[in-house]
Amino acid sequence: MNDKDLIATLFELESLIRPGDIRSVLTEFGKELIRRFGFRWFRAEVPILNLEVRIPENAEFEDSVEFSGSVLRLHTGGRIDDLILKALRPLFERLDYTIAYSIFYDVMLNVLQFSEDLILLVDEEGRIVEMNRKAREIFGLREKLPEECRSEICEFGGRTYSMGGIKVGKLKVIVGRDITQIKRLEEAAREGEENFRRLAEAIPIAVVVYGKDGWLFMNKAVEELTGYTREDLISRQFREIVPENEREKLEKAIEAWVEGEDVGPYRLTVRRKDGRERRVIVRGASIKWKGKKAAIVTFTDVTEIEEDRERLKELSEMLSLINRILRHDVLNALTSALAYLEFYEDMKDESMLKKVRNSIERSVAIIKDMRAFEELVKKGELKLVDVRKVVEEVARKFDLDIRIRGSGRAFADDGLREVFENILQNAAQHSGSDRVDVTIKEFSDTCEIRIADYGKGIPNAIKDEIFKEGFKFGDTSRTGLGLHFVKKLVERYNGEVWVEDNIPKGAVFVIRLRK
To answer: Domain coordinates of the chain in residue numbers?
Structure first.
């Protein structure tokens, strides 16, 4: 197979790699690989799913592994040229990443399927595209939401739901939470204090009653929401667990409810005794308590559901990004390589071969940058990590004089390795410096890492631009993704990253993380 045919074959194989049913994708890819390169057999394993694809099924397979990725292992039978294997490796890596994100996406969908909230995906015309198990139980199979459920409050099937939505591209995710118990509380409060107390203590929603004389009642769920005892809350004033900038709004809403005025539900932040914050939806209604005006106020904890919404939005953006990168950028790079190769065959211009190599190297660089993307979507639990230890582990990968001073700890996850690797790779590849100094310093509540090189530096005009997706500068630039991922990861740790001038020359990347 000559170079032109090889690139054309790689291009066609690349088009087979797409999100979808994993077994079908692997089967189609394996059959085409056998047909194109004459392999005797093909075997693919995805251990995390206990999935195996064998082509043909009755072949005698050997144990040799041609490729092992994050979720995928590939085996091929037959003689394979080292050059072809090297050319196939970027495709194998892309196949591995595509399967990994298909698995991740399926897991996210399954998590939403078992949510006790109603979750529906609707298009711009209001048609239901998908809904989870709970929504199907309530609404059954239908084309659109019931008319009575297209506002913030939905009365359906003898129950009451609070409905909220968030735009995700051209679709809208609608989440409904059952608030029937809250409505029953309001009714019980109007009927009598004893019935109200009994019902309020039995439900998992924080309930308080407020009158002209202050707090009249708090149920057990208030303690679970805030971490304080009821006695603590009454003595220290309930308002103190609300951020200062939100207190006035809460006080005015409660006063309005006491007077019987209609104030719609709204979101509020509650600061727990342990310092953590919870997001709640506050609802209120006017009642009579021992013959006097009062307000019943409920605080429904929606922290997890809002995190799910945000995560779904983030996942959609990430999947859109990876689809663009892998199907657009890699495709363009391989198409360019094919065009340059045709120019070379026609003109015998040796400079065309260098451009072919550059295009292929760009494809490889894009796929390598996906490692940072993988850490970005994993979103592991933040924990205190030894920053110096992480820097030392990453520094061993570089043929560069890297000097590390100081130590410290900060909240991060495994993605911190990708942060340091991208910045050090940036110094090694673009700065022209043969030395990098890493200084780690702890402050009262932060850890600062300064990564300084002694190369050509970064112009002031682009210091803010280099962290934007796709921004490229200079002849050695590749994907324009590495520093974008760095910024995204650091922000996930509630940290900051920026670049300064080094003295006398070069650049300093400064990362500030909380501890």
So the answer is: 3-112, 114-178, 181-301, 380-515
Q: What are the CB-based long-range contacts (under 8 Å, 24+) for 99-103?
A: 99/22, 99/25, 99/26, 99/46, 99/71, 99/72, 100/69, 100/70, 100/71, 100/72, 100/374, 101/19, 101/319, 101/322, 101/377, 102/19, 102/20, 102/22, 103/22, 103/46, 103/48, 103/49, 103/71
Burial class of residue 12 in the structure, from the number of CB atoms within 10 Å of its CB (0-12 exposed, 13-18 middle, 19+ buried) = exposed
Say whether 380-515 and 181-301 share the same fold: no
Give CA–CA dist 21/67, Å, rounded.
21
- Of the ranges 172-176, 421-425, 473-477, which one carries the lowest mean pLDDT score? 473-477
Nearest to 269 by CA among 296, 309, 311, 240: 240
Q: Which residues contact 78 (CB under 8 A, 6 or more apart)?
A: 37, 38, 39, 40, 41
Burial of 205 (0-12, 13-18, 19+ CB in 10 A): buried
What architecture does CATH give domain 380-515? 2-Layer Sandwich (3.30)
Q: What is the pTM of this model?
A: 0.44
Q: How many CB atoms lie within 10 A of CB 233?
A: 20
Are the beta carbons of 372 and 485 closer than 8 angstroms? yes
Rounded Cα distance, 128 and 322, in Å: 26
H or E, element range at 188: helix 180-191
State the Cα–Cα distance between residues 39 and 178, nearest whole angstrom. Answer: 57
The per-residue b/e assignment along 86-107, b for 16 or more CB within 10 angstroms, e otherwise, is: ebbebbbbbbbbbbbbbbbbee
Distance in angstroms (rounded) separating the CA atoms of residues 149 and 104: 31
Helix-then-strand count for the chain, H and E? 15, 21
Confirm if 30 and 77 have CB atoms less than 8 A apart: no
Instruction: Provide CATH code, domain 114-178.
Output: 3.30.450.20
Fold of 181-301: Beta-Lactamase (3.30.450)
Q: How far apart are the first and last CA of the chain?
A: 56
Q: Which positions ≥6 away from 281 have C-beta within 8 Å?
A: 162, 265, 266, 267, 268, 299, 300, 302
Sign of CA dihedral 462, 465, 466, 471: negative
pLDDT digits (tens, 9 = 90+) for 354-380: 878 877 776 776 666 565 555 555 555
**pLDDT per position as a tens digit, 438-466:** 999 999 999 999 999 999 889 998 988 88
Does residue 281 contact residue 162 with C-beta atoms inside 8 Å? yes
- Return the structure tokens found at 432: 């022209």
The Cα–Cα gap between 174 and 243 comes to 28
Q: Which of 312, 311, 287 is nearest to 297 (CA)?
A: 287
